[in-house]
Design goal:
globular; alpha/beta; single chain; transmembrane; about 525 residues; membrane
Length: about 525
């Protein structure tokens, strides 16, 4: 199963090298100056729309040339192509009758980023019949070469070119390391030179994959004498975290890359490092870059060779391409990000995810104050895209980061209100603030509350009579009360035996919690 999108390549009747781009609508504003003052630069892409299924297989009345060539991959008779074309052309103030013949130019199947089904794209090409027709101000004619120049000569606040142009047209013009990857592998290359391969990993729902990010520029320059870089290489990969069942795929990827390989790890979580051992076996000369707090948590079974410690602001040179390390604590205390300077793409690890919000790991130095600071640091960089390790590339970085900040601040206000209204224990606060959330998520919510309370204390917003020390001491009682609450919500207790069973389970959980709370480090 897949969702389908129709993208239209509308050619200029006066200049066959040019096609029409549409200025994309940004996400809705927040209605608060605190966030709306941060604006992403304009994004231009091919006009597109969702492609709906036909209710019956009647002929759409529009003949699509070359459709048979792609018949093994997609059957266009199942879709309402005419409705799709009407919608797309309406966006640019044209009608179907304004265009001559239509050709199925390309069909692209998306890699499994998740959550949900892949989004596959049908690219239809047509040419305007009348050279005197004008397009409105939200459109512009551009060539593939001019789009490529925009993509490769990037400045932080310049206009941007979207992924449909790149995947549909630009990537065909340039040499790419992605073409050397195993042909069965699904990947996405956007922006040019930034290759994403989602690989199955031990991540948490709703995701099932971790994005392996690959940089392997074709034009490798020798700058080995330049000492200003923390590391030099001909290729770089980020977060090889695939499950052991997919290590053979990872092995094939590594075999396609140059031997002078840099491995960059954003943090230590299993779904980001489980593939390190296979890289070490395939390429013992590979260089590992990680924060020292991350390396302390990576086992010798994953990586037993040496590594280079990074802490932020270092530059890495990959085939003549500069990438800058950004210290990005919050998710963990050793979390780092990576800025690809040439495309202004920011790889953010688990600071953001493709859907929903990112969890902070309280057991590994997760810190809400630092998370806020890192978010603002990312906003000030004005990246063109955000590449998270779970989910799709985000095309509106400032909007996404502001959304994260707004949601966390809103949650924090709810926590503060609960405390001001008399909530003193962890369970009382969680039950108040997360009352509408499934009880199975309350354990994670408790960690979130502790981090928010620490941030409120840092801001000096807590009531004077409230004690953080007392709150932290209620962790064990929270586990007991949560266990009873969770079991009651899942299994209505109607008999004494089940009540006894519930209490026994709760007692075991509390015993384990107490043991680990007093166990010496």
């Amino acid at each position: 199963m897949a969702t389908h999108v129709l993208a239209v390549i509308l050619k200029n009747p006066s200049n066959d090298a040019q096609f029409l781009l549409l200025k994309q609508n940004p996400p809705p504003k927040f209605g608060q100056d605190e966030y709306d003052s941060y604006v992403d630069s304009d994004l231009w892409d091919l006009p597109s729309t969702l492609l709906n299924l036909q209710h019956n297989h009647s002929n759409s009345g529009i003949f699509i040339q070359a459709a048979q060539s792609f018949s093994q991959n997609i059957d266009l008779t199942k879709f309402d192509v005419q409705l799709g074309l009407n919608r797309v052309l309406e966006q640019v103030s044209f009608k179907v009758s304004d265009v001559g013949e239509w050709t199925l130019f390309k069909y692209v199947e998306e890699a499994e980023f998740g959550p949900g089904f892949p989004v596959n794209t049908v690219f239809l090409m047509g040419k305007l019949l009348d050279a005197n027709q004008n397009c409105h101000g939200l459109c512009k004619w551009m060539s593939t070469e001019s789009c490529l120049n925009w993509l490769l000569e990037v400045k932080p606040c310049n206009d941007r070119v979207g992924p449909l142009v790149v995947v549909g047209l630009v990537n065909d013009l340039k040499q790419s390391a992605a073409r050397k990857l195993p042909p069965t592998l699904r990947y996405q290359e956007y922006p040019p030179g930034v290759i994403l391969v989602p690989m199955r990993s031990r991540t948490v729902k709703p995701f099932h994959t971790t994005n392996l990010v690959i940089f392997a520029p074709e034009n490798v320059s020798d700058t080995s004498e330049d000492c200003s870089f923390v590391s030099h290489g001909d290729a770089l990969i980020v977060d090889p975290g695939c499950r052991h069942e997919y290590h053979e795929e990872l092995k094939q990827i590594v075999a396609c890359l140059p031997k002078k390989l840099i491995v960059f790890v954003t943090h230590h979580h299993r779904d980001h490092v489980e593939g390190l051992s296979i890289i070490q076996k395939c390429n013992p000369n590979a260089m590992l870059l990680a924060h020292e707090n991350t390396m302390r948590r990576i086992g010798k079974g994953d990586w037993s060779l040496g590594y280079t410690s990074i802490s932020g602001e270092e530059d890495i040179l990959v085939g003549g391409q500069r990438l800058t390390v950004i210290f990005a604590p919050g998710h963990t205390d050793g979390h780092v990000a990576l800025l690809d300077v040439s495309t202004n793409s920011l790889i953010v690890g688990d600071h953001c995810v493709g859907q929903g919000s990112a969890a902070l790991d309280i057991t590994s130095g997760g810190n809400m104050t630092e998370y806020f600071q890192t978010s603002y640091k990312f906003i000030e960089l004005s990246p063109h895209v955000l590449v998270s390790m779970h989910g799709r590339v985000n095309l509106w970085p400032k909007n996404m980061l502001c959304g994260y900040l707004k949601n966390r601040k809103s949650r924090e206000e709810s926590i503060l209100k609960a405390i001001e209204n008399g909530a003193e224990t962890l369970f009382d606060i969680v039950a108040n603030v997360y009352s509408g959330v499934d009880h199975s998520f309350w354990m994670a919510a408790a960690s979130n509350v502790r981090l928010h309370v620490d941030h409120l204390a840092w801001q000096k917003k807590l009531p004077e009579e409230f004690s953080i020390q007392k709150l932290h001491k209620t962790w064990v009682s929270f586990i007991l009360r949560w266990t009873c609450s969770y079991l009651s919500s899942r299994f209505p207790i109607k008999c004494l035996k089940l009540k006894i069973f519930s209490l026994l389970i709760a007692g075991i959980v509390v015993g384990v919690a107490v043991y680990y709370s007093v166990k010496p480090a």
